[in-house]
């Protein structure tokens, strides 16, 4: 071990949490780089909250070590961990004024009265709510309460900021604003942040790193582009974005592409990433936005592009775009989102669907459950 | 509105029951203002004669003092025991939790006679004489269920997140209790104290078993007086008791509602 600073500020090592027979978190190894915003993304019940609460000290791991800034903190009591936690429903103290709420954590640190006043004032300015010191939490709107909760957590200059679905209690339109604000604030302060959400858009738009979880397991981690464009498995591909899955079999490959025969008999090309061999059972993953639909009668396939035939079965108009559900000769339906730059199609129209090999991603086919 | 005949029967029946329940009480209150020694209706005049008599009766005043001291100590002790117990039941999981909770709430369901005798047998077994301490312990046992119920109900309503937030911000469990839990719990604690005072102040059956000649409470005194004679003083005393035992819980309810509203505003 040298004197070099470990860039991984928070480390989970073999963390397991069991509640009786239920395994909430299973053998989790996870690194959080210093200053990064990392999201834990996954469906409800996958163990995100439990993982966060173990770091905060609110739950005790059944097994494993939690390391913050080089120190194992398993045995450090909650109030000595110096972590700022933001709860889903804010948890502002209802009997205390906004000033006393924000000043709460400072009272247990050696900070003089004048400094407390100064710091509270500054924190309220940072969350853009100056001058509300004397109000009670119930007198503020949901979005404002959220900001106070944020001010209360950052004023203590925590080592790590923990947020458990902080936006889920807000109205849809407020959520987007608040998301950007949290994102900017985190960048400005440079505080290492763990953000829990089940909303893929939140995760994709603000994270330096996304950790996709299911059933207490980490399924994939990486920056948003990697997780979105190169999903490691069916679940990740399905959870993020509108994905189509075309089951098939590897029938050959060259330096650039893998050739896959799908159910319809068409052979499609997928860009070569990872190692496949002939006969592998695979799924071809294509985002709904990557397909292009063309009128079949006029269609001339572009050189080097994949194409196959289908018929419009259903469509829904969504303002800027149209969703088509296209039935393939094999009976499988695919979902295509078209940006309406070209013409629109109607029920029953025969179309050709085209997609670049670059946008076809291969994953191993998992045995049916 | 015209009600079907079945409903009007039930209504008449209900009214009759209320009349039957409240007539004796009203009679006691009215007769306490009757100047005659052997009061009967219709009343002949109106006076505070019996109230003045009462105020000059040293043994009654002594009993009042006993009742108030006992009631106050019971209230303080019961709350002191009840808050941590309620916290444990609502916030923590431990083995035998349900059993213990049932045991502590049992005095509500057990006949007071049984409770009275049981405690007496217990101190006999310990070879201790009856004393004020025994009486106090008895009343704590008697009133604990009510405090537990009131405080538990409030605690369930106080989200655990408040305490967790306080702790993540740097407050120790003890500091968390005093700065967050206790203030939010205050209305329930106050209501619980007034409840246990009232129940202690009002209790006859069990207290009859536990009281000695030196620490008789007002209800026990009234019971004793009734055995000898029926003095109109008892009517006056009864009226005072009614006013106290009805108004204290009403007051407690009012205060706790005001507290709750003030905390949110
Ligand atoms: N206190 C608890 N007691 C028992 N089971 C729990 C407890 N907390 C969480 N769980 C279980 O652990 C799993 C993970 O829960 P949680 O971490 O809250 O998921 P998420 O936050 O991802 O929705 C769920 O199956 C949940 O039912
Ligand atoms: Mg959760």
Blueprint of the fold:
The complex is a heterodimer of chains A (369) and B (265).
Chain A: E1 8-19, E2 22-33, E3 37-41, H1 48-56, E4 63-68, E5 71-72, E6 83-86, H2 98-103, H3 113-126, H4 142-154, E7 160-164, H5 172-189, E8 192-197, H6 200-206, E9 209-214, E10 217-222, H7 224-229, H8 234-239, E11 243-253, E12 257-262, E13 267-271, E14 281-287, E15 292-295, E16 306-317, E17 322-327, E18 333-338, E19 350-355, E20 361-364
Parallel strand pairs in A: 3-8, 3-9, 6-7, 7-8
Antiparallel strand pairs in A: 1-2, 1-4, 4-5, 9-10, 11-12, 11-14, 12-13, 14-20, 15-19, 16-17, 16-19, 17-18
Helix pairs in contact in A: 3-4
Chain B: H1 5-31, H2 49-56, H3 58-91, H4 97-105, H5 112-125, H6 132-157, H7 160-168, H8 173-202, H9 205-210, H10 218-228, H11 232-264
The structure holds adenosine-5'-diphosphate (ADP) and magnesium ion.
CATH A-level architecture of the largest domain in chain A: 3-Layer(aba) Sandwich
SSE sequence of chain B, one letter per element: HHHHHHHHHHH
Number of domains of chain B: 1
CATH architecture of chain B: Orthogonal Bundle
Rounded to the nearest angstrom, the radius of gyration of chain A is 25 Å
Q: In total, how many domains does the architecture of chain A comprise? A: 2
Biggest sheet record of chain A: 6 strands, mixed
Helix vs. strand class of chain A: alpha+beta
Q: Quote the average pLDDT of chain B.
A: 87
Write the element-wise H/E pattern of chain A from the N-terminal end onward: EEEHEEEHHHEHEHEEHHEEEEEEEEEE
The biggest beta sheet of chain B reads: none
First-last Cα distance of chain B: 42 Å
Estimated helix fraction of chain A: 10-25%
Strand order of the largest sheet of chain A: 6-7-8-3-9-10
Rg on CA atoms of chain B, Å: 23 Å
> Helix segment count of chain A?
8
As a percent range, the share of strand residues of chain A is 35-45%
């Amino acid at each position: 071990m040298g004197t070099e600073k470990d860039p991984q500020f928070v480390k989970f090592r073999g963390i397991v949490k069991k509640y009786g027979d239920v395994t909430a978190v299973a053998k989790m190894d996870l690194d959080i780089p210093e200053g990064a915003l990392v999201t834990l993304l996954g469906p409800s019940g996958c163990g995100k909250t439990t993982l966060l609460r173990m770091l905060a000290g609110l739950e005790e791991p059944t097994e494993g070590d939690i390391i913050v800034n080089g120190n194992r903190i398993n045995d450090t009591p909650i109030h000595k961990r110096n972590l700022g936690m933001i709860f889903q429903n804010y948890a502002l103290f209802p009997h205390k004024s906004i000033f006393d709420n924000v000043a709460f954590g400072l009272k247990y640190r050696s900070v003089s009265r004048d400094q407390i006043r100064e710091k509270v004032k500054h924190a309220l300015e940072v969350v853009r709510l100056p001058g509300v010191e004397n109000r009670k939490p119930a007198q503020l709107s949901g979005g404002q309460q959220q900001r106070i909760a944020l001010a209360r957590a950052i004023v203590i200059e925590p080592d790590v900021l923990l947020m458990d679905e902080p936006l889920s209690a807000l109205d849809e339109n407020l959520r987007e604003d608040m998301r950007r604000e949290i994102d900017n604030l985190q960048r400005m302060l440079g505080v290492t942040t763990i953000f829990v959400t089940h909303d893929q858009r939140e995760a994709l738009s603000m994270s330096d790193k996304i950790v996709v979880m299911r059933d207490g397991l980490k399924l994939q981690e990486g920056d948003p582009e990697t997780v979105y464009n190169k999903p490691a498995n069916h679940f990740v591909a399905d959870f993020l974005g509108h994905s189509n899955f075309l089951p098939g079999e590897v029938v050959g490959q060259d330096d650039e592409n893998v050739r896959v025969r799908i159910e319809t008999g068409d052979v499609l090309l997928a860009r070569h990433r990872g190692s496949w061999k002939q006969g592998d059972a695979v799924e071809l993953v294509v985002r709904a936005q990557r397909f292009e639909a063309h009128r079949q009668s006029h269609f001339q396939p572009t050189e080097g592009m994949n194409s196959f035939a289908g018929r419009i079965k259903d469509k829904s108009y969504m303002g800027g775009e149209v969703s088509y559900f296209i039935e393939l000769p094999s009976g499988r339906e695919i979902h295509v989102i078209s940006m309406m730059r070209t013409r629109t199609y109607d029920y029953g129209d025969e179309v050709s669907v085209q997609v670049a090999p670059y946008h076809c991603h291969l994953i191993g086919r998992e045995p049916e459950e | 509105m015209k009600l079907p005949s079945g409903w009007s029967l039930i209504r008449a029946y209900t009214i009759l029951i209320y009349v039957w329940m409240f007539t004796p009480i009203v009679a006691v209150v009215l007769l306490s203002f009757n100047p005659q020694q052997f009061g009967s209706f219709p009343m002949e005049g109106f006076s505070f004669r019996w109230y003045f008599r009462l105020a000059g009766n040293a043994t009654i005043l002594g009993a009042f003092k006993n009742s108030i001291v006992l009631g106050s100590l019971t209230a303080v002790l019961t709350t002191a025991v009840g808050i941590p117990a309620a916290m444990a039941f609502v916030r923590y999981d431990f083995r035998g939790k349900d059993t213990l909770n049932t045991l502590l709430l049992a005095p509500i369901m057990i006949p007071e006679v049984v409770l009275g005798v049981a405690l007496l047998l217990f101190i006999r077994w310990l070879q201790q004489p009856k004393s004020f301490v025994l009486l106090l312990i008895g009343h704590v046992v008697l009133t604990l269920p009510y405090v537990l119920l009131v405080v538990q109900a409030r605690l369930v309503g106080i989200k655990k997140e408040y305490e967790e937030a306080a702790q993540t911000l740097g407050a120790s469990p003890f500091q968390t209790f005093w700065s967050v839990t206790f203030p939010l719990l205050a209305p329930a604690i106050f209501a619980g104290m007034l409840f246990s005072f009232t129940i202690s102040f009002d209790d006859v059956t069990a207290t009859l078993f536990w009281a000695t000649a030196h620490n008789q409470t007002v209800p026990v005194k009234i019971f004793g007086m009734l055995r000898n004679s029926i003095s109109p003083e008892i009517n006056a005393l009864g009226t005072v008791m009614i006013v106290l035992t009805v108004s204290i819980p009403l007051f407690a309810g009012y205060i706790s509602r005001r507290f709750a509203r003030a905390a949110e505003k």
